[in-house]
Amino acid sequence: MADALYLSLWYPNLRLMTLPDKLAAVLGSFAAHGGEAKVYAVTVWPVSWQESPVFQRVYGRAADGGAEIRDAVQEGLELMHDDYAYEFQIGWSLWEPEVATELDPKWARVPRLVRVTAFGPLFDEATYEQEGHIRIDFGPDTPFLEEDAALNEEAARHMAQNIRQLVDLTAAMEKESGATARLLWSELGESLATRLAARLGQGN
């Protein structure tokens, strides 16, 4: 069963005024690791997830629009408050099997939207303590496990490429943004490494 995959990043003694630079560094890491160089959308949430956004703008996908990262961050964080959360959407492509009638599906790089959210220290009862000053929501972990696909040599190769891309991206985010702690975690609580080991064991 697919699980939601997240990365949390923490920074020592983070001051709110430094948050734009951290966000820009995290978002800027995507372009070098299979992602896009522009932001698709930004949404600003006040106080908690139960509230309606105070700001939202959709720029469009990079192919036909998108906003430069610095411009999107500046616009999104114009309303900077301790109890706000700032969510940015950006494109990232991974190998996935295309739907096909034949037994061996063709693989292609498929774009997905990733959500990068920065939390003010007072947002939703200090959410950042558990989920990071910046949280990256990668969406379903399907491309890293492909549990519905036959585990042949081609599938294993593309899964390995996706995982390498994930590892490189998370390392770049940590380094470029100056994070002192990071955690890759899932919504259901089981680590990706554990699930991957079980998945590869099916091929033995």
Q: What is this entry, summarized?
A:
This protein has 204 residues and is α+β, with helices and mostly antiparallel strands. It contains six helices and eight strands, in the order βαβββαββαβααβα. The protein is globular and about 50 Å long.
Structural notes for this entry:
This protein is of the alpha+beta class and 204 residues long. The chain contains six helices and eight strands, in the order βαβββαββαβααβα. It has helices spanning 19-28, 69-76, 128-131, 142-145, 153-177, 192-201, and strands spanning 4-10, 35-46, 55-58, 67-68, 84-97, 107-119, 134-140, 181-186. Strands 1, 2, 3, 4, 5, 6, 7 and 8 form an eight-stranded antiparallel β-sheet that branches. Strand 2 and strand 3 form a beta hairpin. Helix 1 packs antiparallel against helix 5. The chain is globular. It starts with a strand and ends with a helix. The model has no long low-confidence stretch (mean pLDDT 91).
Give the topology, please.
Blueprint: E1 4-10, H1 19-28, E2 35-46, E3 55-58, E4 67-68, H2 69-76, E5 84-97, E6 107-119, H3 128-131, E7 134-140, H4 142-145, H5 153-177, E8 181-186, H6 192-201
Antiparallel strand pairs: 1-7, 1-8, 2-3, 2-4, 2-5, 5-6, 6-7
